[in-house]
Specification:
This protein has 19 helices and no strands. With 466 residues, the chain is an all-alpha fold. The radius of gyration is 21 Å and the shape is globular.
Length: 466
């Protein structure tokens, strides 16, 4: 992740393209800014990493949202360590997809939906946005329901009251809190993910079996196995993160004064390098946590005969090894699980709603951005509020319990991800759009492997079901 290389870019000597309109090939190059340009090797270490951390870290943490936790716990409970290999093998693919999304946003100074519209027209973009909105709305509803179900483990309030409280508080915070403060809140909420890595090293684990399952892929051609596998892929390489991270890079550029009056970013290779460090750090942290969740699900649930997670209380049992020295381990585990689910829901639901709002506003040409006040971007914030409201209402249909709905949301994301990744790959590799920052052979290879992998899982699920 140090210096730029042909692995990600080609021909760095070429001039920067016009960053305001992808169809204009005659614009002047963009000049580098002195902000956020210091090489990470200058003062190195954790302190430097924390300074760089931003959209990549938040996206990585949001990836382990309640839907992700439920899906990883379910695969551990149902198949033991059988799908543990996915955490390692998916890491380079998700890193490449998120890096490409962030790079497109940073180089163009626009969100992903806006760039897609300029490049491919409104028909394709409307189809993609529709898929995104469907997946996001299901995911938002599932996350809100899971937050309420988890909170009921420690707070004796009706499910309806808790869903309303969480929804109203998240809408108010995302609309009323200034962007700089909001980002700080999101960063702190990522700490709640530490419970699972700690549990792995507290519990007695069969490390030989775990290491073998981590490095040796295991596949079973059955509807149950492929259903959860599609969910694992969908909750890891998930479409809302593509749009969120691209738009957040633009927000960061705006906040740091890197966007000129014409909307063109003033960036350099140092900026791109730091973007990659931030992105890779977030994705690695995300997958370490995902791996740990699968491990504790397999160790605490599958080994104990629990193969189906039907409720928040069932999922909470995965954390019992962390508190086995306490006299009331089950109760403490439920508290830890509830706090983690609620904290990650508070992180992920605004990200989900925000990604929908960015996409719709960019395509519609509305003012958008969390740095704006309500009266400056009413349509943008209206989509955020509407997305959470519709998601909330999904909880009262009563077709699927909240925990099962989380896994369904992950599978839906897995099914729709492939075509969006294909479009992203074409954008990131375009010389006309990205200029010297376009994808090189390694980025291209990983992006198309991610696309084929997601499509293969979805097709395999369909064929095995039929």
């Amino acid at each position: 992740m140090a210096d730029p290389s042909p692995d990600y870019e080609a021909h760095p000597q070429e001039a920067q393209p016009h960053l305001h309109s992808v169809s204009d090939a005659t614009a002047r190059p963009v000049q580098a800014s002195t902000q956020r340009q210091v090489s990470p090797r200058a003062d190195g270490g954790i302190r430097r990493l924390l300074k760089i951390a931003g959209p990549g870290l938040i996206s990585g943490a949001a990836d382990d949202d309640p839907s992700g936790i439920a899906t990883y716990v379910q695969t551990g409970a149902q198949f033991g360590y059988g799908q543990l290999w996915t955490a390692l093998f998916v890491l380079p693919l998700m890193t490449a997809v998120q890096e490409a999304s962030a790079r497109v946003g940073a180089v163009t100074g626009k969100g992903l939906a806006a760039v897609m519209r300029e490049r491919y027209g409104v028909r394709l973009v409307y189809s993609i946005i529709l898929l995104l909105l469907i997946a996001n709305t299901i995911n938002i509803g599932a996350d809100i329901g899971a937050m309420a179900a988890a909170a009921q483990l420690i707070i004796p309030l009706p499910f309806v009251i808790l869903t309303l409280v969480f929804t109203i508080s998240m809408v108010a915070r995302e609309i009323l809190m200034p962007y700089a403060q909001y980002v700080k809140v999101l960063k702190w909420l990522t700490i709640s993910l530490l419970a699972y890595p700690i549990t792995v090293f507290v519990a007695h684990e069969p490390w030989g079996t775990i290491l073998r399952a981590t490095f040796v892929p295991h596949l079973v051609f059955s509807p149950a196995f492929l259903f959860i596998l599609t969910g694992v892929l969908g909750t890891t390489i998930t479409p809302y993160m593509f749009f969120w991270e691209a738009s957040q890079e633009v927000e960061e550029e705006r906040r740091r004064g890197l966007l000129g009056p014409d909307g063109r970013p003033k960036i350099s290779w140092d900026f791109i390098r730091n973007l990659r460090i931030d992105n890779a750090s977030g994705m690695i942290a995300s997958q370490v946590v995902s791996w740990c969740i699968i491990v504790v699900g397999a160790t605490a649930l599958h080994a104990g005969g629990v193969t189906n997670v039907n409720s928040a209380a069932d999922a909470a049992k995965a954390l019992v090894p962390l508190v086995h020295t306490f006299p009331h381990a089950g109760t403490v585990a439920e508290v830890l699980f509830a706090v983690g689910i609620v904290a990650l829901g508070l992180l992920a639901v605004p990200v989900l709603a925000g990604s929908s709002a960015y996409a719709v506003a960019e395509v519609a040409g509305w003012s958008e951005g969390l740095n704006m006040k309500l009266n400056q971007a009413q349509g943008f914030y209206g989509i955020i509020a509407l997305g959470m409201l519709v998601g909330l209402l999904n909880n009262f249909i009563g077709l699927i319990n909240p925990v099962k709905m989380l896994v369904v949301a992950a599978v839906v994301n897995g099914v729709i991800a492939a075509p969006i990744i294909a479009v992203l790959a074409l954008l990131a590799a375009s010389k006309g759009i990205m200029g010297q920052y376009r994808s090189g052979w390694l980025s291209n290879t990983l992006l198309w492997l991610a696309c084929l992998g997601m499509a293969g899982a979805a097709v395999g699920l369909l064929l095995s079901t039929l």
